[in-house]
Amino acid sequence: MSESRPVSRRALAAWCLYDWANSAFPTVIITFVFAVYFTTGIAPDEETGTAWWGWTLSLSGLAIAVVSPILGAIADQNGPRKPWIFGFSVICVVSGFALWTVKPEAEDAIRAMLLVGIANFGFEVATVFYNAMLPSLVQRHRIGLISGWAWGCGYAGGLACLGLCLVLLVQADPPLFGLDKSTAEQVRATGPFVAIWFMIFALPMFLFTPDQPRSHKPVHEAVSVGLSTLWKTLKSFRGFGPIPRYLLARMLYTDGLNTLFQFGGIYAAGTFGMDTEEILIFALLLNVFAGLGAFGFAWIDDWFGAKPTIVVSVSALFILGGALLLIEDKMWFYVLGCALGIFVGPAQAASRSMMALMAPPHLTAEMFGLYALSGRITAFLGPFMVGTVTALTASQRWGMATILVLFLAGLILLLPIKAGGREPAPPPQA
Q: How much is the pLDDT for 98?
């Protein structure tokens, strides 16, 4: 049911464009703009805001970890992925649009956390089914290339959306549409802007990319069989070769990577005194280098394999991340941050392609559900560590240093795995 079949270039481009569409949400809302607005404009102080933001994303991540494998197993029995993608994308879009209502007042903090948590939940669960489409769209020896290109499109989309937010909203003087800067309307407007962006650019994937055929099983049967299959998979998981160890390794380094992105803007604001406009400029540069890294390493993934790509990328993230915690000068923060960005995209894209290559064809969505679980079962851990250590030490540097532990632990677990090497190209047709 999940075997690849030839699809048109338009279908592949439309699938990649969904990455362009949805990447605006984590870039603008979770990482750079709304996160900074929450910690500096709504929370009582930056340290408290950092802790609250971390706990919000932790609870959202816990819900993602619980739900994703279950829905993935059910989807494998039902067939199509796009209805699931559509439903959870709508949750993200509606909640993101509602961020407009969050004013720079302490009493709006709870509403902000609820909306961000729900939107993040919808974004991540939709991505489970989006990733599960990949093995059915492209031949195995090109999975790494298409995954890397899609991730590069995601960074380009984040870059474009951030640039427009900067020019049209944050830096516009006078603000467009009569937005009132005294109530942070120019920042709050990024919520509706991202929601509309998501809706528009996700549409081609729903129109032009083929989906899995329906199984014609009744809903109750798909649910029953899906849950039964998931339970059998979990009971016999040790028999799935290197997959369990890979998911454990990914769980750790991805938790570090997600936490780095979630708190990057907050760290820049609190430790280096960067304001919203400076953070947006830094984010634009970071996305440029991350997109270049994702596009460039897409060929590396194809030539040498997913695992070597991940090892190189996570090693570089550990070294450059450590350097970022030691420097004091803002210019060096820009330089090292952009260098770090080069290796972010390849780590993420190669992780997706490695899972696509390792997953049994009849359990693709279920395995990507477990893949999401591995990225989220400890999603509370990174933000909790950063938030808690920051609160205990009153130092963002010490809090952010906990991310390095996650990178190192994931790398140590990944190294012995003998999987994710270069996929041989199919023999030429006679």
A: 98
Picking from 44, 45, 42, 49, the residue whose alpha carbon sits closest to that of residue 99 is 42
Q: Are 76 and 106 in contact (CB under 8 A)?
A: no
Cα–Cα distance for residue pair 215/224, rounded to 1 Å = 14
- Report how far residue 368's alpha carbon sits from residue 355's, in angstroms, rounded to the nearest whole number: 7
Q: How far apart are CA 211 and CA 80, in angstroms?
A: 6
**Architecture of the domain spanning 9-414:** Up-down Bundle (1.20)
Quote the CA–CA distance of 289 and 283 in Å, as a whole number. 10
Query: Can you give the chain as a three-state secondary structure string?
Result: CCCCCCCCHHHHHHHHHHHHHHCHHHHHHHHHCHHHHHHHHHCCCHHHHHHHHHHHHHHHHHHHHHHHHHHHHHHHHHCCCHHHHHHHHHHHHHHHHHHHHCCCCHHHHHHHHHHHHHHHHHHHHHHHHHHHCHHHCCCHHHHHHHHHHHHHHHHHHHHHHHHHHHHHHHCCCCCHHHCCHHHCHHHHCHHHHHHHHHHHHHHHHHHHCCCCCCCCCCHHHHHHHHHHHHHHHHHCHHHCCCHHHHHHHHHHHHHHHHHHHHHHHHHHHHHHCCCHHHHHHHHHHHHHHHHHHHHHHHHHHHHHEHHHHHHHHHHHHHHHHHHHHHCCCHHHHHHHHHHHHHHHHHHHHHHHHHHHHHCCHHHHHHHHHHHHHHHHCCCCHHHHHHHHHHHHHCCHHHHHHHHHHHHHHHHHHHCCCCCCECCCCCCCCC
Q: Which residues of 390-429 are buried (b: 16+ CB within 10 A; e: fewer)?
A: beeeeebeebbbbbbebbbbbbebbeebeebeebeeeeee
Backbone region of residue 211 per phi and psi (left: phi > 0; alpha: psi in -120 to 50; beta: other values): beta
User: Cβ of 12: how many Cβ atoms within 10 Å?
Assistant: 19
Model pTM score: 0.78
Q: pLDDT tens digits, residue range 345-395?
A: 888 888 888 888 887 776 776 777 777 766 666 666 777 788 788 888 877
